[in-house]
Write a structure and sequence with these properties.
With about 325 residues, the protein is of the alpha+beta class. The protein has helices spanning about 15-25, 80-100, 105-110, 120-125, 135-145, 150-165, 180-185, 190, 200-210, 225-235, 240-250, 265-275, 285-290, 300-310; strands at about 1-10, 35, 40-45, 50-60, 70-75.
Length: about 325
């Protein structure tokens, strides 16, 4: 049985569509995402079911520059009862906000740094920059674990391997980004045979199994705030502060993540220092102190630093 949900989301003025498309088209083999200039299709397991998110971007009035609308549909396989259907519908709405980068309003940070020597010029060069997220918190955190201390191309290849080994396919033919239950059942040797390091494979499986068996709760609530989730993640062997902050950024759209451990962030900061006449290379501690000035908007600070390194200005770190 397939169930289709449809909705239309009016996107903010000045919406940077290419940034969103660039983030989701990073895998050149397009196993779980298909991206064109006006359409994004992504398969992902939501509430236990394979779901195809199909988003078409259009202007309601032909020839106009503003008023971009995302026409969204979600085609779900295998849902047969009302409770499961409701859970999928809720997960779909969350996933759409994530993949469209609509969790964090960039304007408060822009206002904060309007007269700032560091970020004022950056925000004026990169108006409307947003944080684009993974579809689910589990996807964001597994991506963060996979990306630890390796280059982007290799991380993308390992991500593709994880998707294919988990073997959740949507009826459209796209592979789904898996959920915790799908990854938890994978065999360590299967990952090791596909270029995962032992430490990385063990951390991915450990994390997935903790989530799957309920020991690690990723659902944010009044009883389980972001601070508690962060502490619980840090207690997992193989997960450190960078992984947690990156996962909070890409998974929850948390507005105050400090990415001082990110190599690209420190490189971007070094470039800014050179422009302002400073020549010392910032270490992790100095970078953390620098970013602290911009709390509680450190996520947008990271986005602008990442974007400053990209020739196209997209914040796709």
């Amino acid at each position: 049985m397939m169930e289709t949900l449809a909705s239309a989301i009016a996107l903010p003025a000045g919406y940077r569509l290419e940034d969103v498309l660039a983030f989701h088209r990073r895998d050149p083999e397009h196993v779980a995402e298909q991206v064109t200039a006006t359409r994004l299709r992504k398969a992902v397991v939501l509430a236990g079911a394979p779901v195809l998110l199909d988003i078409a971007f259009e202007h309601p009035v032909a020839g106009t520059a503003d008023g971009l609308v995302a026409r969204c549909s979600a085609v779900t396989d295998g849902v047969t009862d009302g409770v499961a259907s409701a859970a999928v519908a809720t997960a779909v709405q969350d996933a759409l906000l994530n993949v469209l980068g609509l969790r964090i309003d960039p304007q408060p940070f822009t206002d904060l740094v309007a007269g700032d020597a560091w970020f004022g010029p950056l925000t004026r060069r990169q108006p409307g920059l947003r944080i684009v997220q993974s579809a689910t918190v589990f996807e964001a955190l597994t991506w963060a674990i996979i990306g630890q201390q390796i280059n982007l191309a290799f991380a993308i290849a390992l991500r593709r391997t994880l998707i294919q080994l988990a073997d959740r396919r949507h009826s459209s033919g796209l592979w789904c980004y898996p959920d915790a239950a799908s990854v938890a059942r994978l065999d360590l040797d299967a990952l090791l045979s596909r270029k995962f390091s032992r430490a990385k494979a063990e951390t991915v499986l450990r994390f997935a199994r903790l989530v799957d068996n309920g020991e690690l709760d990723l659902i944010r609530s009044e009883r389980n705030p972001i601070e508690a989730i962060s502490d619980a993640l840090l207690a997992v062997k193989g997960i450190g502060p960078w992984t947690v902050n990156y996962g909070l950024l890409r998974g929850y759209g948390h507005a105050d993540c400090s990415l001082h451990g990110d190599v690209a962030i420190r490189s971007a900061l070094q470039a800014l220092q050179a422009l302002l006449g400073e020549d010392s290379k910032p270490d992790m501690r100095r970078t953390e102190q620098f970013l602290q000035r911009y709390a509680p908007h450190r996520t947008m600070a990271a986005a602008h630093l990442w974007a400053s390194l990209s020739p196209k200005g997209a914040g796709n770190g």
